[in-house]
TrEMBL record:
InterPro entries: Acyl_CoA_acyltransferase, GNAT_dom. Residues 6-168 form the N-acetyltransferase domain. Pfam families: Acetyltransf_1. This is GNAT family N-acetyltransferase. It comes from the Bacteria. SUPFAM superfamilies: Acyl-CoA N-acyltransferases (Nat).
Length: 169
């Protein structure tokens, strides 16, 4: 455990119910006013937990890295994941899939620690909801820039942009 009371650790199957709750709480908070309210209200903690359970039970690429942000009592306050790019036209081999934190963990430095732990010192891309100003500001501060790729969130049509970070060689 770090001196600040926060730590990172890999998820276990025993974490899935809490992960489902945290995942949906983060989405409802982060996308309020950005995604349709009825979509956010319909998000299922149970379905999210089942997805986590399935993902953690299934063999995945050994390169995929998922870590939890936990407090001093080992309560989950967020998570992050990265691995090989999923895009056919990927400009980098590595993709940051997600950095999600509950409000209690924001401003603690854990988003930085999490990004460093799952991405490391490599070029990477990520997809972010275009109107998510907080996330875009964080990624920009961490060296990511708008790459020009555009997409839409499949369930809501919300605009997403692809950002890229290229490290100096």
């Amino acid at each position: 455990m770090a001196d600040d009371g926060w730590d990172l650790r890999p998820p276990t199957l025993e974490d899935c119910d809490e992960l489902g709750r945290v995942h949906m709480a983060v989405w409802r908070d982060a996308y309020a006013g950005i995604m349709p309210a009825d979509y956010l209200a319909g998000l299922s903690e149970e379905r999210s937990a089942a997805n986590w359970r399935e993902g953690l039970s299934s063999p995945t690429s050994p390169d995929v890295r998922t870590l939890l942000v936990v407090d001093a009592e080992d309560r989950i306050a967020g998570f992050g994941s990265a691995g090989p790019s999923r895009d056919e036209d990927a400009p980098t081999e590595w993709e940051l899939y997600v950095v999600n934190l509950l409000p209690i963990a924001r401003g603690t430095g854990m988003a930085d620690r999490l990004l460093d732990a799952v991405v490391g010192e490599r070029d990477a891309t990520l997809w972010v909801v275009e109107d998510n100003a907080r996330a875009r500001a964080f990624y920009t501060r961490r060296g990511f820039v708008d790459e020009g790729g555009r997409s839409q969130h499949p369930a809501t049509g919300t605009s997403e942009i692809r950002m890229i970070r290229r490290l100096a060689r």
